[in-house]
Amino acid sequence: MKDKLTAAGVLLSVGLAMGCQGMNKQETDADDALAQALAEAMDKQDFRLFYTTGRRPVVPGFEQLTFKDLEARCGVKAMPGTGDTLRSGTDKAARSEAYQYAKNYNLKMYDACLNKR
């Protein structure tokens, strides 16, 4: 019985470690893509912030500031695939992922925008 519990514990530990490795790779890939997008935009001196499309445009990470102020200060660009319509759980997950990406991008780009002069 003790051997079975030990074996189960080892399998659980290995399973958790393997699962976490997969998550870290996804996060690393997303971080790499974000860093590349930021570098390309800065090379082009494109300090525009992403906003979500829909009835009420939102600049992720800057909901407390007005859209017009951000548009005047840094400029804005639409984040593809962020309209008002959600047709499935997959759409909701994709929207959440796009929002998080835009938020991370915007927080870094806003600092660059303020310091561009």
Layout: helices, strands, pairs:
Blueprint: H1 2-43, E1 49-51, H2 67-73, E2 76-78, H3 89-114
Helix pairs in contact: 1-3
Termini separation (Å)? 70 Å
Shape: globular
The count of strands amounts to 2
| Biggest sheet statistics | 2 strands, parallel
Percentage of residues in DSSP E strands: 5-15%
Report the C-alpha radius of gyration, rounded: 20 Å
| Overall average residue pLDDT | 79
Low-confidence stretches: 4-16
Number of alpha- plus pi-helical segments: 3
Helix content: 55-70%
Organism: Pseudoalteromonas viridis
Protein name: Lipoprotein
Describe the fold and architecture.
With 117 residues, the protein is mostly helical. It has a domain at 47-114. The chain is 64% helix and 5% strand. The chain is built from three helices and two strands; from the N terminus they run H-E-H-E-H. The protein has a two-stranded parallel sheet with strand order 1-2. Helix 2 links the parallel strand 1 (49-51) and strand 2 (76-78).
What are the defining features of this structure?
single chain; 117 residues; mainly alpha; two-stranded parallel sheet; globular; Lipoprotein
How is this structure best summarized?
The chain has 117 residues and is mainly α. The chain has helices spanning 2-43, 67-73, 89-114, and strands at 49-51, 76-78.
